[in-house]
Amino acid sequence: MIKNRLAILILQHPQERREPLATAGLVVASLANAKIAVGLSWANLAQALGRPADPRNWAVLHLGAAQPQALMPGEEIVFLDHGGNPRPGAAGRLRRLDGLVLLDGSWKEAKTLWWRNPWLLKLHRVVLNPAQPARLGRVRREPRREALSTLEAAALVLRRAESGPEAADALIAALDRLLTEVRPTATSSPAPAPPRLRGRAIRHRGGWR
Predict the structure, then answer these.
(1) In degrees rounded to 5, what are phi and psi of residue 151?
(2) pLDDT digits (tens, 9 = 90+) for 103-122
(3) pLDDT of residue 171 exceeding 80
(4) What percentage of the chain has pLDDT greater than the value 90?
(5) Is the distance from CB of 105 to CB of 11 less than 8 angstroms?
(6) Domains in the chain: boundaries
(7) Residue 121, Cα to own-chain centre: how many angstroms?
(8) Distance (Å) of CA 32 to CA 10, 11, 27, 43, 114
(9) Contact between 176 and 31 (Cβ < 8 Å)
């Protein structure tokens, strides 16, 4: 288990626990400073986290609208204001954060988590603009190139926020082991496109996807 400075809090919709390719469990199994909170709503960040926390020092992977200019080529992590406009100095903002909240579930389930937890509005908003397609897309068809699993979203942010690559590398290694286990089945009999989007982090241009 790797020590990580930036805490990872995954809010997981109860239905996501039944998904065989869900990646949230790999995150908490790989990182010392990570937690899954299963449910639909919590009174505040501290209750979900299980300890005191200042929301001003936390960010959430945002699911709402982002202005197109917020997603600049080559910039993989973008902080947004409440109007969906980019905020400068992403690298410095990442280093000042105590933690990151990820919403885990289908797109509909993640949307439910967002609206049932208004305290998320107090957190900094982050969107991702990944340079590489999702590794999990090798065994599960993705709706678009920018879609990432929950684990991959955490790894992308940790690679920029931590002083070294150990935490991000540990997550990707865990995902690669999962891919090795499922690849023979996936390659011998390609699975149809899933009916729901699971645990994705995806960049946004005009609202919910």
Answers:
(1) -60, -45
(2) 998 888 989 999 999 999 99
(3) yes
(4) 52
(5) no
(6) 7-65+76-188
(7) 17
(8) 14, 17, 9, 25, 25
(9) no
